[in-house]
Amino acid sequence: MNIKISIAAFSLIVFVSAKSFSHGRNALNGAGDIAAIRPQCKSDRHGNKHVPCPSPDELDVSVWPCVKMADLCNMQRDCPNGEDEHYLYCFYHKFRAQEINKLRQSVDQIKG
After folding, report:
1. For the chain, domain boundaries
2. pLDDT value at 88 more than 60
């Protein structure tokens, strides 16, 4: 029974996230037929991992900004539409970070 509830809750979160991030626009913010490919962001020379923003720049859809992982959910808008500070995105990001930390701690305990 708990699995069914978990799947239903996850499906609802994904649906609400998709509706919230689109703000009534298509994925390219009304860019029409322009095909945009979301980039694969690289780490900088200091080893900071970067991730692409959920949408491209509003003025130039060929520009798809990358944001440092450390700058996600830091109360500063780094993405063009501020999606990096959206409450659902931050909820997911913080939950994911907590789970990864738990896994690291478990691996460290196993290693001894």
Report:
1. 2-111
2. yes
